[in-house]
Design a protein that fits this description.
Layout (H helix, E strand, L loop, with lengths): L7 E5 L6 H8 L16 E2 L2 E2 L5 H7 L4 E4 L3 H4 L6 H13 L3 H14 L5 H4 L9 H13 L5 E5 L7 H18 L2 E6 L2 H5 L4 E6 L2 E7 H6 L4 H8 L50 E4 L2 E3 L3 E2 L4 E2 L1
Parallel strand pairs: 1-6, 1-7, 4-5, 5-6
Antiparallel strand pairs: 2-3, 7-8, 8-10, 9-10, 11-12
Helix pairs in contact: 4-5, 5-7, 7-8
C-alpha cells in the first residue's frame, strides 16, 4: 500500500489479522527477537526504513512519523508528568530548551482541547480521563510536526460521544497540518466518515483495497462482504438479522499455502484451497486478492 500527503488510509480487519504488527514492523518497533522481518520494504521519501541504521530510524520515529498507540494508559509512563513526556521528544529531535519545550507542550494541549494546559503539564497520567489521555497522546504524536501520523485503534477504549469528538479533532488537525494518516481499526463505521481509502486485512494479508465509497458500495472480496453485512444500518428500510462470518480466524504460525479465508468462505472453489491469490486490480483504484468473481460466483 502507499499513502499520499494529506491522505487518510484506513486498515481494517478483525482482531489478529495483522494490522498493528504491519505498522509496528514498518517503524521497527517489534522486538527482535522474538520478532523478525524476513522480506519487504517500507519506503519513506524513497528511503527504506527497514534498512536504516538504528540511529537513523530513531531520528524518524516521533519526529517525521508520529504514532498514537492503542491504550494510552499503558503507553504513558505513570511516574512521569505529562509535561516531561510531552517535551522529551521535542528536546531530543528539535534541540530546543526546556522552557521553549514547555511553552510548545502547553500550546499542543490547548490545541487538542485540554483546558488549563499550563497547569496540567505537572499532572500525572492517572489524573486524566481516558479521553483526555488519548488527547495527550495526539499532542505527543504531533509535538515534532510529523509528515505521517499512525493511529492504532485509538478510539477502542472510548465511549461513542468521546469517539466522535476525537475523530473530529483528528480530521481538523489533518486538514490544518496536511498530515497523512494511517488509521488502524476494526470499526467500519468510523472509517466511512474519516478515510479516503480502505485496506482490508485478513490472516496477515491485504485482501481488498479501494476508495471508501467504492468499497462500501461495491465490495468484491467475500471477507469484506461479510464484514459489511455484520454492520447495523440506520438507513435500512426493512429489518434484517445481522449476519456473522462462520468459523475461526487462521492460526498465523505458518505461511498459508491456500487462501487464508477459504475455510470460512461461501464462494470458495478448489483453487482457493490450493493457492493463495495475489492482490490484483479489478478496476480503477480497486484491488482484491480472490480467485472468484463474487458477482457471478465464477472463477476470475
Amino acid at each position: 500500500m502507499d499513502i499520499e500527503e494529506g491522505e487518510t488510509v484506513a486498515i481494517v480487519g478483525e482482531s489478529g489479522s495483522g494490522k498493528s504488527v504491519t505498522v509496528l514492523s514498518t517503524l521497527r518497533l517489534i522486538p527482535q527477537p522474538p520478532g523478525r522481518i524476513v522480506a519487504g520494504s517500507a519506503k519513506f521519501y524513497g528511503r527504506d526504513l527497514l534498512q536504516m541504521e538504528v540511529e537513523e530510524i530513531n531520528q524518524i520515529r516521533g519526529s517525521q512519523i508520529g504514532m498514537i498507540f492503542q491504550d494510552p494508559l499503558s503507553s504513558l509512563n505513570p511516574v512521569l508528568t505529562i509535561g516531561k513526556q510531552l517535551t522529551e521528544s521535542m528536546i531530543l529531535h528539535q534541540k530546543i530548551s526546556q522552557q521553549d519545550a514547555n511553552a510548545r507542550a502547553a500550546e499542543l494541549l490547548e490545541m487538542v482541547g485540554i483546558p488549563r494546559a499550563i497547569e496540567r503539564l505537572n499532572d500525572y497520567p492517572h489524573q486524566f480521563s481516558g479521553g483526555m489521555r488519548q488527547r495527550v497522546m495526539i499532542a505527543m504524536a504531533l509535538s515534532c510536526s510529523p509528515q505521517i501520523l499512525i493511529a492504532d485503534e485509538p478510539t477502542t477504549a472510548l465511549d461513542v460521544t468521546i469517539q466522535a469528538q476525537f475523530i473530529e479533532l483528528v480530521k481538523k488537525l489533518r486538514d490544518e497540518f496536511g498530515l497523512a494518516i494511517i488509521w488502524i481499526t476494526h470499526d467500519l463505521g468510523i472509517v466511512a466518515n474519516l478515510a479516503k481509502r480502505v485496506v482490508v486485512m485478513y490472516g496477515g494479508f491485504f485482501v481488498e483495497e479501494a476508495e471508501v465509497k467504492e468499497l462500501y458500495g461495491n465490495p468484491r472480496h467475500p471477507y469484506t462482504i461479510g464484514l459489511l453485512k455484520s454492520l447495523p444500518r440506520l438507513d435500512a428500510k426493512e429489518h434484517h438479522r445481522l449476519l456473522s462470518i462462520d468459523g475461526m480466524p487462521p492460526v498465523l504460525y505458518e505461511h498459508p499455502k491456500s487462501c487464508p479465508f477459504a475455510p470460512r468462505c461461501d464462494f470458495a472453489i478448489d483453487r482457493c484451497r490450493q493457492e493463495n491469490p495475489p492482490l490484483e486490480s479489478i478496476g480503477p483504484n480497486h484491488r482484491i486478492a480472490c480467485w472468484v468473481d463474487v458477482t457471478t460466483g465464477e472463477a476470475r
